[in-house]
Structures are given as structure tokens and as C-alpha cells.
Automatic annotation (TrEMBL):
Name of protein: Glutamyl-tRNA(Gln) amidotransferase subunit A
Species assigned in the record: Silvibacterium dinghuense
Keywords: ATP-binding, Ligase, Nucleotide-binding, Protein biosynthesis, Transferase
EC category name: ligase
Enzyme Commission number: 6.3.5.7
Amino acid sequence: MSKNLVEAGLPKISEALASLSGRSETAVALTERCLSAIEAKDGVVNAYLSRDRDGALAQARRVDAGEVTGPLAGIPIGIKDVLAVEGQPATAGSKILEGYHPPYTATAVRRLQEAGAVLLGKINCDEFAMGSSNENSAYGPVRNPHDTDRVPGGSSGGSAAAVAAGMALATLGTDTGGSIRQPASFCGVVGLLPTYGRVSRYGLIAFASSLDRIGPFTSSTRDAALVLGAIAGHDPMDATSSTAPVPDYTASIDRGVAGLRLGVPAEYFAEGLDPEVRRPVEETIEKLRAAGAEIVPVSLPHTRYAVPTYYVIATAEASSNLARFDGVRYGYRAADAKTLSDMYRLSREGGFGPEVKRRILLGTYVLSAGYYDAYYKKAQQVRRLLTDDFLTAFGQVDAILTPTAPTAAFKLGEKTDDPMAMYLADIYTVTASLAGICGLSVPCGTTSDGLPVGLQILGKHFDESTLFRVGQAVENLPR
């Protein structure tokens, strides 16, 4: 079944905005190109769970008529199905939310609408954003457009695949432990993890509230800067959103890396890194040195504790957040329950998939009486040490460079029987999630089989501008 469905014909957002402004293409025509790609390819890729063809074309017509304006007017965008859009299905990739239609719209999505974007539909994902391969959706796995026998990464694999296959100019995903950056690496697109608090989480179906973040997938760094500029900023509906001003992220994007100090941590280039990934990453770092950056060795000594720390904290918060899905308030309810207790038990048993159940059980255990101090409290203390590692390193450098993932995209089913092997796919991304800093994955080359490899750029809290500056420089490097 192996096919290559990557689409190179769609314009970047910056190019499309110029075409729309110059009237050389209409918003309706651009939207129809995306809808046609969805029609032609999504039977294989399975990126979209629902499509809003009529709504998208109606919005595009309003843009063409001049009734809707804004920085993203006429740009077709897909939305990961963990974000609420009023009146549209919201499943979070789970059977337990089947048939649920939120009565409100997430702030990040509403801001896209206010910027004039055209919403194409809701995009497939691992159930409740839990997974590293997008094989845990109740609605079937998503396939990688570069090789449809391989995974697109998770949990935002559908959002990454949609951009790679030309089924949207941009998409929104969410990142809890690497769920934007890792699929961006696997699918050869740009994926941004904004600083925690930079983008409002209001309207996001929560997995782990102290870790969840919303960010864009695009085909270029400049496009990611444009989308972040539209969705970032304080939101009174989210007490954790920051009041820090939102800069113009494109203002300094073309300054290059000359004069920047870029750190390279030895802990990210140790045992377990596939040589096929190491080669293009190290070649890119050397090219950045030649472009004028100073490459500085740094150390993040507590990195080896990151994966277990992440899975203690994330599962604990998941067990708490998912308690609300009980067959009473939302979606699926078991039909054959005879008592109230049976209704709760059978609804959760039938509504949740195996990975969600595994994480709820783990999280309930680490929060239980007698184990809280040994696991959850200890994990929070280690999280502080991991954050301090970054703060110390950022005292020496402007940004840090690492591989995004230890391997390129693996085969569908290759790791489904080994949860630990699956969890280690996030080994290079979870540290930034725990520390609350920002990160960007940009394509930096391919393996000998032609599979994409991503370079991860990590930045200080609220310093996305430096990430975009380095990402743009990587795109400008000679190949």
C-alpha cells in the first residue's frame, strides 16, 4: 500500500496572501483546491474526521466579496478535533464523545475566524491526544503522506499529515509531550510549541492541564509566525494565559543567525539516536556555524529523568481531567446498564480505548493515598530540576539545537505492543514540555530512504521570535 501523497503544489500562506491580495487567485479557488485534495487523498491518509465544505466555501465567498478581512483572510486551515468549534462535532478521537457538538468555540479557533481564516473541518488524532503514532484514534489510524505504510507521529499526526498532503495550508494541533514537534518531524513540516500561557487553552478538551499547549503546523517557518501572531495573547477565559505583549513575529525573522549563540546538549546525541537522524541534524548544525552562529556545548544533566517524570505527571492529570466523561454529561452511554454504578462502569469501559484506560489507571495509582509523595510529588520536584537545567543553559546561549525525535517515522503497528518503546519516541520533546519553554521543529534533511528528519530548536520562555529567526535560517541553508 506504500504511496507518496506529499503535495508540493499548494502555496505557502505568505504566497497565498500575496495572490489573494493581487486578485490572481480567489479565496474560493484556494479553498476548492484544498477540498479537492481532501476528496482525492483522505480515503488513504484518514486525516479528517469531519469536513465543513459548505461553511468553508461560504467564508471564502465572504472574503472574496470584501466582507471579511484580517491577516489570514482566505487561508484554509484544519483544526485538531480536541478543540471546540460551535456546532461542529468534537470527538477528541474517542468513542465516548461521539455525537457531541460543543455550544461554544475555542479561543484559538475564534481568533483564526476573526483573522479571516477559512475552517475546513476537524482533524483526526490519538484519543484524547494520548499517543506517539496516531494509531490510538477510535476512528482509525492516520497514515504518513511520505509513506502510507508508516505512522505520521502523534498525537497531532492528522494535523501534520494534512499539511504535508496539501489538504490545508495550515492546521492547529496540540502538544503535551511532543505531539506537535514529533509529527512535524515525521511528516516533513514545521511545527511550533508555543511557551505555556502564550496561547489560550479555553475550549481545548484537556489531557494534562499543566502541559497542554495549542500551536500551528505549516509548510514554512514564516507561516508558523503568521499563525502564532493571530492566535497568541491573553484571554480572560483562561487563568493560565499570559498578559505578556504579543510581538510581530515576522519583524526579525530574516536577520539570520550571525551573532547568535546556539547550544548543543550532549545528552541528546547519546545512545539511542538513529545514525540516519544524527547525520542530517549534525550537518545542519555545522551549516549554521558556517552561517555565523557560535555553536556552544551545553549540558542538561537531568534529561534522563524526563520520560518517567512526564508520564507520572501527565497520567495523574489525565486521570483527573477524564473523570468527567462518565456517560452522564457527554456522548456515549452504555445501553445495557441496569444500575447507576453499572452505567458509569460500562460507559467508561466501552467508551475509552486501551491507551486511555492505561493512562487513567497509572494516573489514579500515582495519586492514590500512600503513593502521592513517592510518585507525583517527587515528579514535580524533578520537573523543577529539569526547568533549572534549561534556565542555566539559557544563561549561556540564545537557543538550543537537538534532534526532534530519535528515529524517522516507523511502520504502522511496529510499536503498538510495546508501550515503553512508544513512550521513548518522545524522549527529546518531553523536557521542553515539562519546563514550559517554547520549541520549533523544522525539516533539516532526509534519511537514505527519503523519510523526513526534523531539527528541534528550543527557546527561552516567550522568546518564539528567536526560534523563528533560527528556523528561517535553516530553511535558507544550501542543500
